[in-house]
Design goal:
Blueprint lengths: L2 H6 L2 H11 L1 E8 L2 E8 L2 E8 L4 E8 L9 H6 L4
């Protein structure tokens, strides 16, 4: 599966795939948002969750390692670097 294929799926299907096939790599907090980083096939998926309203706000699929920068402190703690 490619990132573009993943983003074309319904949010419900995306979450099912992440739950059953994805690997949770890290989470981080920024302002009122909780960000979850998953590895899926050969790309990454970031979920942005609003902690105050308890709603999923954004699902982003990407391959670029540049977008991993905010997670680096958390990934090095668990041995991904």
């Amino acid at each position: 599966m490619l990132p573009a294929d993943f983003t074309e799926l319904s949010t419900e299907r995306q979450l099912d795939i992440l739950y059953f096939e994805g690997d949770l790599l890290a989470n981080r907090y920024e302002d009122e948002f909780i960000y979850l980083l998953y590895s899926l096939d050969e790309f990454f998926v970031e979920l942005r969750h609003d902690a105050y309203t308890n709603k999923l706000r954004q699902v982003t699929a990407f391959r670029s390692t540049d977008k991993l920068e905010p997670y680096l402190p958390y990934l090095t703690e668990i041995g991904y670097e």
